[in-house]
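User: Hi! I'm a student and our assignment asks us to look at how structure tokens line up with a sequence. Could you show me two examples?

Assistant: Happy to help. In each example below, the sequence comes first and the structure tokens follow. Example one:
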Amino acid sequence: MVEAQVFPKALGIEKPWFVSDVKLDIALRRVDIYLERTSELLPCPMCGKPCPDYDSSER
């Protein structure tokens, strides 16, 4: 899928995040880009230690 290569580069998306889906609605002039992440733990923004996430709702 070309989108899986183009959008991460254009948006600066890096591991552990990746583009899982792209939906194009030409009539509404809208592109929905869906991101997911690998199972890697994310670093705490305060101390940098790996920690589990707690907010995974779709926005």
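Example two works the same way, sequence first and then tokens:
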Amino acid sequence: MSINKNQLIKLQDYLWELPKETRPDMRVPARVYALEELLDAILNDRSLEQLANVATLPGIVKASMVMPDVHEGYGFPIGGVAATRYPDGAISPGGIGYDINCGVRLLVSDLSYNQVKNRMEELSKEMYRQVPSGMGKGGFVKLSAKQMEQVLRNGAAWAVEAGHGFPRDLEYTESHGCLPDADPAQVSDQAKKRGRDQLGTIGSGNHFVEVGRVGQIFDEEAAAAYGLELHQITILIHTGSRGLGHQVATDYLRIMMGAMPKYGIQPPDRELACVPLSSPEGQDYFHAMCAAANFAWANRQVITSECRKAWSNVFGKSGGELRLLYDVAHNIAKVEEHAVDGERMKVIVHRKGATRAFGPHYSELPGPYRHIGQPVLIPGSMGTSSYVLAGTEESMASSFGSTCHGAGRRLSRRGAKKQVDAPKLIRELKEQGIHVQAGSHRGVAEEAPIAYKDVDLVVETVHQAGIAKRVARLKPLGVVKG
């Protein structure tokens, strides 16, 4: 059943609702965060049909939700948020995604644009040399079986202990870079084999390392707390758990599809396979997902070390340190406590292409950020802006402490390749002062700026909705892609 605009009730300029009565199998309403200018693109694919499907999940509470960067995904739409009752509500691999703990981290430097502008091409090339990228590409770190167990159990802390960073980095990482419920025994040998040489690599697709500069500050107090200044040079890292996470998702989707009849679960779409979190299959998947999330945090920590090496190779001691501002996941399920209809309850929050956006005073946040709220990192595309936002009390009240995660695709990868001349795009970006280092023209074409929605409109939506507030805009200067 396709969804059309007439079925949506406009609650606010930025919020639309598909009533629970739209379909007899919906347990809760479905909500869409989007300014009207973004709605047509959202209605072009199956995103809202998938959103209605999510509203049928066993144990779902409040509403199924999508963010303004939403587009069609596997089972869940990308940009989706859903919370189910703990411990018997559903957990669904489709609500986390194949790239478990795909996420973003932001490094900030002591240098300003005027100090680096004449060396951007050199820096981009050195970043490309130091950070392995590309489909299936292995890295400089090769894990033994014992080391793999440690990575899956300890996450970013393993990387720091192995010399790939500083203890301070862990303090500025969501969940300190480690989910304690990880159990390496629930990760298949095939998944471990796929991840054995992929630590410290970004892979392909929309993953990247991007050098940028702070082009605009919207909130002086929040920017000061985060240590951001106008024209400061930044480095954004966007990647996840690579082949290991993909294999975990593949393994457990197959298991859940076989287990659903046992629990009387019949989703409207087989891609929405799920089981109760409290079931043996649900527990096994959750423990494996936590382990894959830890692998992703270790991966971004090792990439941080590689970026610091490239930075030092180009600028030497005069470059100073690259400080980690924050690292946050946008493909994950976490057990959290939220208010639902006035009642505090534990829920399993699925965020698939949605970023945690916790408000001020949350105890896990680093001390200097606690009065402001959690940093939220929103990457744009190669030729547009990225954003630093801050989580809010409103996101805690309305969207399970969640907001958007990027610009969101407008064209499929195939559609983008048909429209984009990659060598020409690379030349045009260079004329704009953006240096692209990529392993293939195909990857550049697939990730061209025209393939994405307007990131400024996406951010304007969540800012108006109050589920994240604008802090700073980052302009790209150099991009490393697979």
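Here is something you could point out in your write-up. The domain at 5-90+99-481 is CATH 3.90.1860.10 (tRNA-splicing ligase RtcB).
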